[in-house]
TrEMBL record:
GO biological process, one term: endocytosis
Gene3D superfamilies tied to this protein: 3.30.450.60, Mu homology domain, subdomain B (2.60.40.1170)
Protein name, as recorded: Mu homology domain-containing protein
Cellular component terms per the entry's GO annotation: clathrin adaptor complex; clathrin-coated pit; plasma membrane
Subcellular location: Cell membrane; Membrane, Coated pit
Keywords of the record: Cell membrane, Coated pit, Endocytosis, Membrane, Protein transport, Transport
Length: 436
């Protein structure tokens, strides 16, 4: 069974694929999950029935099964459905589902047959499920036959070569990494990992054969081979269905016939040999019970030819802070945000190999005893172009097509941090204010 609930527990979309389910199963999810604020797990099993749910904006996307289903497959289906809706409607919320419920039902029935996921390629679906009913009703017979051949053929993700034509043949490859790091106050790494994906936009005529290679020293399973200090070690990889995995296992090259337009070619995760682009050196001192002194320095560790942009440093302050006097700011601007109990330091750009500092003094409400402070970590957001924290690089990118046309290839790297790059604060306490 498949459902979409709003945040009140009302059913917006309902489809029962098997006869062993009744419509009342939706009431069970409403009572046990939507109305229960203590539920944290995305999988709830009640008796012989398992509920898999994904939250997106103000909606619950729910799949229900009574069999021992593959959980990864069920969640992949849910996220695929969300991405399809985003492609069709621009966003996924209660309003878009209600305004397009006919198309949503068409999509649900097309990508799921008797409870088994079927074709979920967005480009293929858009050829015969459209938001304009007149267009789909007036398709020529030869067009319908081509759609059938694409949906059931060896390359269901791409139309036949004669249907794809471009004046300028281009391929764009974006290697995007989100780096997560937790550091101690002394600078040692407590945890570091990278979530990366390779996004591709292919505007290529015909049916091209694409091939690009990754690092020579690329280790996927650390238990199988030792990579060394300069090797790129990936814990796991996931590829688009168009990739031929035999070539990748042999020489770390990726061969595929790409879908037309934008798609995610590969996802990966790394936890070893992570290159940290920014180093943080915090010094936070509690002075008596009335003040907290801050001296924060950040250093960029990458090449001077590169630069970090949109740097935002969030420095936490005690809950009983009355005001913060920001002293010297080496680069950028800083201000105290009372509603969030943080000092926000924004730096538009910082070149590689540079450092900058900030000093501030927080004034606290007068107390006779020292207030216990949880000391949340300092959080940093940033972006660095043409840099990868995992060390992953694209060695080459080639396009082969029977007409032998010239193609233009572009490769871009982007490493960013968004809420997961943090450093803990040391506990330094001066019992009495310094005397002049």
């Amino acid at each position: 069974a498949f459902f979409i609930f709003n945040q009140k527990g009302e059913v917006l979309i309902s489809r029962l694929y098997r006869t062993d389910f009744k419509r009342s199963i939706a009431d069970v999810f409403r009572i046990q999950v939507v109305s229960n604020p203590d539920v944290r797990s995305p999988i709830i099993t009640l008796g012989s029935t398992s509920f898999f749910h994904v939250r997106v904006n103000n909606l619950y996307v729910v799949a229900v099964t009574k069999t021992n289903a593959n959980a990864a497959l069920v969640f992949e289906f849910c996220y695929r459905f969300i991405n399809i809706c985003k492609s069709y409607f621009g966003k996924v919320d209660e309003e878009s589902i209600k305004n397009n419920f006919v198309v949503v039902y068409e999509l649900v029935d097309e990508i799921n047959d008797f409870g088994y996921p079927q074709n979920s390629e967005i480009d293929t679906l858009k050829t015969y499920i459209t938001t304009e009913s007149v267009v789909s009703a007036t398709q020529a017979p030869e067009t319908s036959s081509r759609i059938t051949a694409q949906a059931t053929g060896a390359t269901s993700w791409r139309r036949s070569g004669d249907d794809v034509k471009y004046k300028k043949n281009e391929a764009f490859v974006d290697v995007v990494e989100v780096v997560n790091w937790m550091g101690s106050a002394k600078g040692t790494t407590l945890r570091a990992d990278v979530d990366g994906h390779i996004q591709m936009r292919a505007y290529l005529s015909g049916t091209p054969e694409c091939k690009f290679g990754l690092n020579d020293k690329l280790v996927i399973d650390r238990g199988a081979a030792a990579g060394g200090s300069d090797a790129v070690e990936l814990d796991d990889c996931q590829f688009h269905q168009c990739v031929r995995l035999n070539d990748f296992d042999a020489d770390r090259s990726i061969s595929f016939i790409p879908p037309d337009g934008e798609f995610e070619l590969m996802k990966y995760r790394a936890t070893s040999n992570i290159k940290l682009p920014i180093k943080v050196i915090p010094t936070v001192t509690e002075i008596g019970t009335s003040k907290v002194s801050y001296d924060i320095t950040i250093k960029t560790t990458f090449s001077p030819k590169l630069s970090a942009t949109n740097i935002v440093v969030r420095i936490p302050t005690p809950l009983n802070t009355t005001d913060v006097d920001v002293g010297s700011v080496g680069t950028g601007k800083a201000k105290y945000v009372p509603g969030e109990n943080v000092v926000v330091w924004k730096i538009p750009r910082l070149q590689g190999g540079q450092e900058c500092s900030i000093s501030a003094m927080a004034q606290l409400t007068s107390t006779t005893t020292r207030q216990v402070w949880a000391r949340p970590p300092i959080d940093i957001d940033f972006q660095v172009l043409m840099f990868t924290a995992s060390g992953l690089i694209v060695r080459f990118l080639k396009v082969f097509e029977k007409s032998n046309y010239h193609s233009i290839k572009w490769v871009r790297y982007l490493t960013k941090a968004n809420g997961g790059y943090q450093v803990r604060v040391s506990q330094t306490f001066l019992p009495h204010p310094a005397m002049k």
